[in-house]
Amino acid sequence: MPVVNDFYGEEVNELNDRHLYLCVAVREDIESFLDGVLRGGVDVVQLREKELDFDRQHSCAELMVPICRNYGVPFIMNDSPELALAVGADGVHVGQEDVTVAWCRDVLGPNAIIGRSTHSRDEFDAALDESATYFSAGPITATPTKPGRSGTGVSYAVQCEARSDRPVFVTGGVNEHNIAGLVADGLRHFVVVRALTESRSPEVTARSLRRALDEALSTVPVEPT
Predict the structure, then answer these.
(1) How confident is the model at residue 7 (pLDDT cuts 50, 70, 90)?
(2) DSSP code of 224?
(3) Cα separation of 3 and 1, whole Å?
(4) 112, 83 in Cβ contact below 8 A?
(5) Comparing C-alpha atoms, which of 80, 70, 73, 101 is closest to residue 5?
(6) What fold is seen in the domain 10-216?
């Protein structure tokens, strides 16, 4: 049975119905790129920039926020709740070595979307006791976006999904070719990076991903309420 806590609100229900989460770094064509992938079906966006300074991230985020608002899609900053607050983001995502979820709540308030990365059972067990809105699990396969981190395997993400009372977004090599199989394994929410950011036609790729995902989800039996 999933562990149930009661210290998060309606933002969880909103994320339950969102399944295709883009992580993207600062890029020169961010406005056209973002508009295209949102047209294609991405329904959560995170600015994940590990190299550039506060000002560059702030400038990029200011371009991204209104585009996401126009599509009704949550915009998340990576690592810094202070930067999330400064740009009017919907929330922040933090890793195991970043600030605490409690600190993010103090900065952003009770209704902010706050994500927590997990890579092992112990980390996931600890995260269940935090006031995170959602978790990430993975990377299920090794990926250049997480240098030096080995893959957790699909089984780890499946175990997290089965135990969680909040959405679990799977990371690591998700693309239009494997997403249906991951849904069949029992997974429901997916983070996509390189499949979109390295695509020569991001909107077309996003549509292919969305189509494969929606077709796979349509075969999942509806659980009784």
Answers:
(1) very low
(2) P
(3) 6
(4) no
(5) 101
(6) TIM Barrel (3.20.20)
